[in-house]
Amino acid sequence: MQKIRKAGYCTTRGLWLSFPCLAIGFLLFMPATAEEKPTTEATSKPVQRYNPLSQSLQPIDDNKIIPGKIYHHFSLKYHRYVWAYALPNGKWSYPFGPGTTELPDHFDLVTPPALTRALLEQRAGEWLARSRQEGSPILARLAADDHWELLEFRSVRSHFDLESGYRWEWHGDQRIGILHTHGRRWRYNEESYEPAF
What we know:
Elements (H helix, E strand, L loop, with lengths): L1 E5 L3 E2 H6 L6 E5 L10 E2 L6 E5 L4 E5 L9 E6 L4 E8 L3 E2 L8 E2 L10 H12 L1 H9 L5 E3 L5 E3 L7 E3 L6 E5 L2 E6 L6 E3 L3 E4 L2
Parallel strand pairs: 1-15
Antiparallel strand pairs: 1-3, 2-17, 4-9, 5-6, 7-8, 8-9, 10-11, 11-12, 13-14, 14-15, 16-17
């Protein structure tokens, strides 16, 4: 059993920073997770991974893709590249929509771990020290133009499923679905989420 929460109209920043936006919670069976709802797509376009040193995307051979890591792959359904978790047997999780926040460790980055940490410390600046004091994770957010930006304020890991319109947040080990008064489907509009009827 996993939790679902209701939320009203609020911006992504307001949602992450204001728990009143998530005021009503109740237990409910969740729909298919990324692991339970895989998709397989045959395409000649290469899978890409992020290079934080050059801040660019680089192709990766299919046999080097690591299940459980995030990549940029071409979606035949959307006719463009999307971000998603790689699953076993060449399958992919649901595609991430704008506003999704993720931990840097969940990406298969071109740079080795030591260099990645050094780059993260350099770019996070003062926020890195504050986040360590507060015990908050460093997170990256997917912007509407499909690039990831480092968040410099306290937030939680969250997904916006581009396919279903569903949203989730992680609080500790609990994945919590976000509802509004008319259901659970959302759309993203100018850095805010709105109920989709």
